[in-house]
């Protein structure tokens, strides 16, 4: 595997702007980068329109398939569910940078695996956290009585609103009015379901508890039938992550290592679609709250997270 860069790498875009991995990109810049990759690598990358956010912003993905061969095992990566976790969408962008712009370094993976990567599921909340409230977590749905937003990671359909969320529209953990009541989660559900036939691995990138988690998040004691496989791969990813910069990562069931909560994306995928492998990767932490990683620390965490992802991707390439 190639040695990933931890120094800022400049990427020229068609719009004439320069995006680098030492500053956080806007939602528009993320979309520009997706378009640029599809334009420059047409036999490898294709834009997928996932849906539209509450405020009308596009939610987009990039399908990565060498020579556009459709029938390979599929890995779906979702990022940017929670607005304030800026390092999450940037990690997805860096993964795209590696496997698309440096595709020739990952021949074994790309010969055997396709990818569908959604860098920013929650563009409204992300932009609101960038411009108005750095601590904002939710989407930007209008809930009434001056309350806004749904915690998108409490709005998915598997055992929705049974534990760990709130029915208070003003709460940070508001579960919404029904499962998939947020257009963002409904769009992601449709994308997952329409690609379920080949789905082998689903990865949610979040920040910043420094963990590799597997389902289920709603319970400390309920596990998928192949929990031994999940545990072994999670342990391997943790070793990879810790070998990069010395940060301590832990692995285990999501409902055991974090407070149990239903309605998460990984529970929906594991509980209804049931691919072999479902994980949340909680990135390295920084800043005052963990998720507000300073731009000066981005490069290390992006490289570290990408190594963890590639450990999963190599496992799929060699075993699925």
From TrEMBL:
Catalytic residues, chain numbering: 282 (proton donor/acceptor)
Gene3D superfamilies in the cross-refs: Zn peptidases (3.40.630.10)
Tagged with keyword ATP-binding: no
Molecular-function GO terms, alphabetical: metallocarboxypeptidase activity; zinc ion binding
Leader sequence residues: 1-16
Keywords per UniProt: Carboxypeptidase, Hydrolase, Metal-binding, Metalloprotease, Protease, Signal, Zinc
GO biological process terms on file: proteolysis
Cofactor: Zn(2+)
GO cellular component: extracellular space
Domain Peptidase M14 span(s) in chain numbering: 23-316
Keyword rRNA-binding assigned: no
Similarity section: Belongs to the peptidase M14 family.
Name of the protein in question: Peptidase M14 domain-containing protein
Organism annotation: Anopheles epiroticus
